[in-house]
What we know:
The chain is mainly alpha-helical.
Amino acid sequence: MSSVAPQLISFDAPSLVEASAGTGKTYTITTYFVRAILEQDLEPEQILVVTYTKAATAELRVRTRERILDAIGLLDAPPGGGDVLQSVIADAVARLGRRTAESRLRAALSRMDRAAILTIHGFCQRLLQEYPLSFGIDFDFEVSEDAAAIYSELAVDFWATELYDAPEWLLRALEKERLDTKALARLASRALIPGIEILGPTAVELDSAAFDQWLLLKQRASELWSSHRNEVAEILVNNGDLNRRAYQAQTVKNNWLPALDDFAPELVLVSAGFDAHRADPLAQLELDEADFAWAGRELRALAQRRANGRIVSTLEGGYDLDALAGSAAAYLAALQRD
């Protein structure tokens, strides 16, 4: 390990400085930055500083700007100060002259908005944006920092478009297998892992005639249950002729009867509030017209499956008039879709 102060290590070769928390890493980096301006005649955009988080990047930008201001303030300071930066400034003034040293520092200060102080992923993104041909990518590419949000959005879009007119039996089967938008998003994230192949069951053609017959029988069974629920429940719970190891009363009450009842509303009532729009000053939930249209499609599909299409919506909230008008129009258009 070198005994030289880390802020004064030569630029001639790469150097590694190991430091624990609170030992002055930011102080050292910002001093290097000032030295690079004065000793190497570099501009802020020519000095790459890479750190881990956005918060650390923002702090480093502020501290670097402050360090340049400190350097300007030390141009006329008397010798002998305790800050290592003072010896850097004294050497620069002796070598360049005061006017040139100050000119370089002030020019750098005016260009700090272009400084290449970046997170690791921010640096990679800048490279891709500045040299797309070298990397073989499109000029209009976009970088997403939250792939999970994209997977979720794609899953919701797929569910809304591909299963919009899906029969009730299919939706119930998916629900039973816990296949929802969250499951689709997880599947999408895994499918993109290199070397992963998603395998599923072999597709089987549906026997439409047999299935229609099954639906009729299911409907008839549902009607019979509605008409004779109490009698059947009494038999299942209390009849002594049944094998109570198979027909345990507690299991019948807690599991069987609720499953047989399987709530199905006759009317869907919607309190249609639009104050969740991103332009609304109240809720701050960042939704937009497309989100309310999606809600309209989902509610319409629910009403068609469960309540013969009967749905009533009442206007509740929305405090930005333009956002309210656009959101309500998108929602109503989704409800009226043929």
